Each structure stands twice: as structure tokens, then as C-alpha cells.
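Data card: per-record layout.
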Amino acid sequence: MENPEPSAPRQRPTSPRDLFWSFTRLALQGFGGVLAIVQRELVEKKQWLTREEFVEDWAVAQILPGPNVVNLSLMIGDRYFGLRGAMAALAGMLTFPLLIVLALAAVFAGISDLPQVQGALRGMGAVAAGLITATGLKLIGALKKNVMGALVCWSLAALTFVAIALLRVPLVWVLLSVGGMACAWAYRQLGRLRAPGTET
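The structure for this 200-residue chain is written out next.
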């Protein structure tokens, strides 16, 4: 029998400069939210993360204070190059978008009351919502490998939707209650997976 070919080496950023320019490109593409862009670039194109890793990292980024994608950039930068990588990724996410926003704010101040401008902003919001929904649907497959099980994940997602969208429960209480239940269940499942082959 022939020996199987070795698997391809894991893709990774080559330097903090690579992180800076990669996250700069991501930031400049993200109007109204960059989830769809980040998932496509980091998982499908650059392959720095698997789909399952992206889902897990994005979940952590959402729980932490601050913008989700900024948190994610810090996590990825730190993973590959420590503090230098985290700062490079953060700078990439913020530098050029900040300059553009300041310039647009100066221009927008004079035209913000025009109906055409308000209509354009509403249209951009609808497009951003569609991109986020499409990305969420694309990532559903990652739930099959989640340690909690797909049924539990769907149940927690439905419970979260009902609590926030219908019952108007403040986000912090949803995180503490539903998020706490999810953490407890994941901890239990991980313990069951480790128990047969490990000693504690």
C-alpha cells in the first residue's frame, strides 16, 4: 500500500505586517458590519481558521466588551504573534476606517437631512442585515461538530431569540442566564468526553 500524502500545512499570517494589511482590507470592506466579510476572508480564502474555530472565536468575541470584530482581531493577532500581533491586527482594523469616518462625518454633516441620503442609508442597512443572515446560514453546518450537540444549540438560539426579540429581556441577563446554561452544559459534555480515557 502507498503511504498517504501528508496533509497540507496549516495556513497562518506570515508577520504582524501581514496581519495589519489583512485586517485593514477586512475593515475597508465592512459596511454596516463585517461578519460576512471576516468569515469569507479568514475561513474560506486565507484559511487561518476552520469553520468550527471561527464559530467558537466569534462566540467569545461577542461576549467580550467592545466591537465583535475588534475583539476577534485581537484574539487572532495574539494567537500568532503575541502582543505585537494583537496590536498590528487592531491597528489594521481601526486606522484607515477611522480616517474615512472622520472625513465622511465632515461631509455628511451638510447633507444628512436630504431624503435621498436617508433612503440610501436604509438600503445599506437592509443589505448588511442580508449579509449577516447569509453568513449565519453558511455557518450552521459547524453546529454538527459542536460538543453541545446541534439540538441543544438550536434550542439555546431559539431561547435567546424569544428572550431578546419578543420578551425584551436586557442582553446582560440573557448572557448570564442562557449563556450560563450553555457554559454549564458544554462543561458537562466535555467532562463526559474526557472521562473514559483520562485520569483526574
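Known properties of this structure: Residues 106 and 154 are 44 Å apart (CA to CA). The chain has two domains: 16-142, 146-200.

See the next section for split statistics.
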